[in-house]
Every structure is written in C-alpha cells, then in structure tokens.
Amino acid sequence: MKTYIFSDPEHLAQLHIDHDRILDILNCVSGSTDTASLINAVYLIPGIHQTRGVYIRRWSDPGHFQTGRGNWKFTGVFPAPNGLPAQFRLIRMRLDTRNRYFPREERDSYGWHFTYKRPEDQLALLFAHELHHYRRYHLELHPGEGEHRANQWALNHIQGLGFQVTGYPVKRKRHKKRPFNLFHGRDPFTAFRSLKSGDRIDIRHDPRDVYTGQTALVIRPLRNNAKRLVIRTSDGKEWRWPVSWLTPPSGS
C-alpha cells in the first residue's frame, strides 16, 4: 500500500497532525488486509462539509489518478505523483483541516450519526469505510454488504484499535402518505363510482352532437380521482368520456 498526501504546510499545521501520523493511522487500520494493489490519495483541505471518501472499483492507471468530475474535480490542482504503477486500486479521501471543530459530530449521507474526538479518529473511520469496499470488491471478503454494513464494520474495527469514535444509524421517521385527492374535498362524481363494467349510462352532452341522448356501455369502472369514464358508444367506438357530460345513474 502506498499513500500520497496532498496539502500545504499551513493547512497541515491547522490539523495538528503530520505525515508520519497519517501513515501510521492508515497502516494501523489496514492491518493484515492484503493492500498490495492499493494506493491512497489523502487531501487535507479546509471545508467542514467536504470531508468524504471514495473507493474506485475499477482498476486505475496514472492517467486516472486525478479527475475533473463531481466532488473530486479539485484533484486536478495537485499533480499526479511520479512512479505510479501501471494499474492499481485507488481510494481518495478528503479531510477538513480546521482542528477547532473537534470534537466533531456529523451525520453522513447514509443516515449515520458519528462523533469524533480528534482528527485522527475521523480519518480512521473514513479510511476504514473505504477499506471495507476495497475488501469487498477487490478481495471478495464482504459479499453483498453495502454502505450500512461498511459503516458498522468500520466503526467496530477502529473502536477495537482504540480510536475514539462513536456512531449509530439514525432511525428515519416514516410519514404516512395521505391519499391524493384531486378534488380537495367533496367528490362531485360519487354517483358514478358505483358503476360496473357492463352497466348502461346516458350521454347528456356531446360537443359534436353525435351521441347526445344516446345510451353507452361502461367498459371500466370510474377510477379514484378520475374525471373520465371509459365507455363504448352504439357504433362500437370506445371513449374516455368526461363524467360531467354524462347523466348520473338513476336513483342517484
């Protein structure tokens, strides 16, 4: 495993962590995992809402070490290191360097709430999460496990190593969906909703005055919130006829 760290002296000083400590953390977290194919790119840049990581599932080459896409297009500012192998597995990590925000709480995009005492703890969890993906997709060690399992594995793993992180998935409140009501109150076509396929209905109005006064056959019952009824006229044609142009069934 090789690790490349990108920052400037000022930002690194703000984090109160040096290159050697970062390497120690990543080596500690990777432990006995076979990381011979893995390269880590660690970016230490201010931005409290920009801490994130990603594991690139496909094989990477030196030409893809940087990217101009999405949340990682800033990587183009930093030159790709020399001596990269012809192909490798890549993990990118971006960590906010503003140490005054520790201890820190955050909620990730998967609905987990984490608390970190130090920058080292956040870096350890970030790397452990992406390492889980590397282990799953490259080493086939965690078949079928997604983001939530990756969070749980990462949390358990680094807590066992002594890092000071707590975390748990936040239960989302499920709101009952109210049935959509097109009419926002009283349904003006209640009388028509008891009609069944095969019933007869009188046509009260036809703008072309072709079917006015005729009786039609109901093909399909009136659906909830619908304003048109599927009918068949005497000439065998089927129509989605406006209910307001029909005479309510007798007895309504």
What is shown here, in short?
The chain is of the alpha+beta class.
Using brief descriptors, characterize the structure shown:
alpha+beta; 252 residues; Collagenase (Catalytic Domain); four-stranded mixed β-sheet; 12 strands; five-stranded antiparallel β-sheet; SH3 type barrels
Low-pLDDT residue intervals, each spanning 5 or more residues: none
Total number of helices: 4
CATH topology of the largest domain: Collagenase (Catalytic Domain)
Question: How far apart lie the N and C ends?
Answer: 79 Å
What is the CA-atom radius of gyration, in angstroms? 32 Å
What is the architecture of the largest domain at the second tier of CATH?
3-Layer(aba) Sandwich
Strand order of the largest sheet: 11-10-9-8-12
Instruction: Return the CATH class of the largest domain.
Output: Alpha Beta
General shape:
elongated
Note the topology.
Layout: E1 2-6, H1 9-15, H2 19-30, E2 38-44, E3 52-60, E4 88-95, E5 104-107, E6 112-116, H3 119-137, H4 147-160, E7 165-169, E8 200-203, E9 215-220, E10 228-232, E11 238-242, E12 246-247
Parallel strand pairs: 1-2, 2-4
Antiparallel strand pairs: 3-4, 5-6, 6-7, 8-9, 8-12, 9-10, 10-11
Helix pairs in contact: 2-3, 3-4
Could you please describe the fold and organization of this structure?
It is a single chain. This protein has 252 residues and is α+β, with helices and mostly antiparallel strands. The chain has two domains: 2-169, Collagenase (Catalytic Domain); 190-247, SH3 type barrels. It contains four helices and twelve strands. It has helices spanning 9-15, 19-30, 119-137, 147-160, and strands at residues 2-6, 38-44, 52-60, 88-95, 104-107, 112-116, 165-169, 200-203, 215-220, 228-232, 238-242, 246-247. The longest helix has 19 residues, at 119-137. The radius of gyration is 32 Å and the shape is elongated. It starts with a strand and ends in a 5-residue tail after the last strand. The model has no long low-confidence stretch (mean pLDDT 89).
